Amino acid sequence: MKQLTIDILNRWRELKPQRDAVKDQLARKFSIEFNYNSNHIEGNTLTYGQTEILLLFGRVIGEAKMFDLEEMKAHNVGLKMVLSEAVSDNPFTETFIRQMHKILLREDYEVYRNLPGGVTTSYTVHAGCYKTRPNSVITPSGERFEYASPEETPGLMTDLVKWYREEEAKEELNPLELAALFHYRYIRIHPFEDGNGRIARLMMNFILARHDYPLIVVPTKTKRQYLEALSAVDKLVGTMPSDGANASLKQVKAFVDYLERLMTVEMQTDMVVAEGTGGQWWYSGGWVRFDNPNVVEIINQLISDPSLSISELAEILDINRSAVQKHMKFLQEKGYIIRSGARKTGKWQVVLTKL
């Protein structure tokens, strides 16, 4: 780990314990960021605003696929379970990983595929059970990259958990290295037919939380770098699943470096929040600042009373109606506020998080 990261980590720890209000702010921020990004990487179509409102208020804004809504809610349950388990004295087991998978997928389901000649085949994805059919991915170069076979998977997963428990006891690897190496080894096994990426990122944060390290969000905007870091390791390790499942720390350095950069960003943001030196608003991985005080006042008024109309806002701010409409249009286009309900009885929802 770089000296700069160690220095930031020490400073991050000096700011703990934080006030309960700050802890709650940071926990809420991480929950929204992690759930949104980890699912969005895998194709979930909910917007950042829809995710926030669903997780914080249990409501659905705008059009959304029922599958995506249920997937997001289940993932949030999984995150809560991971963070709770991390502070327990329970040993880390395969059963825990399978339970997490069952929570994410919720139930078994059928996958149908159309083959040439009008033939349709199907297979069942089992929630909480290791895969029963081979899985693979097509690389950017067009080659097929095979993961561990169904026959190899149970043994490799048993070895993975055994390895983790031994390495944790030895305390030779720092928690970030341990989390990165576990993530990579797990991904090379790809033990389930669906949900492997989300499980890998949940387990990574389980390890970090277990050792009081900053949690990591893999932003969907860095998905390319995320996959490139994993691919760079693949080239060093080779294509054999058993080699991937036993990769060394030296081989996964590119992935460790990528995660270290993300962790540094998380720590720096947390410290800004804890010290109260940042911007007023947070949205989708970054600070949002407004130069126009009327925009800030509109946001504050909508937080206090979501049912306010354009005319009422214009009267409160003592500005003309067209100016309010212009500001509201800007906030809606950016996704900072969302309108729900009927035209006359609907309410505004502020998606920005106040930090």
TrEMBL record:
Query: Which CDD domains does this entry report, sorted A to Z?
Result: HTH_ARSR (cd00090)
InterPro entries reported in the protein's UniProt record: ArsR-like_HTH, Fido, Fido-like_dom_sf, Fido_containing, WH-like_DNA-bd_sf, WH_DNA-bd_sf
Q: Enumerate the spans annotated as Fido domain.
A: 92-261
Mind telling me which PANTHER family this protein's record contains? FIDO DOMAIN-CONTAINING PROTEIN (PTHR13504:SF38), FIDO DOMAIN-CONTAINING PROTEIN DDB_G0283145 (PTHR13504)
Q: Any idea what this protein is called? A: Fic family protein
Species name for this entry?
Xylanibacter muris
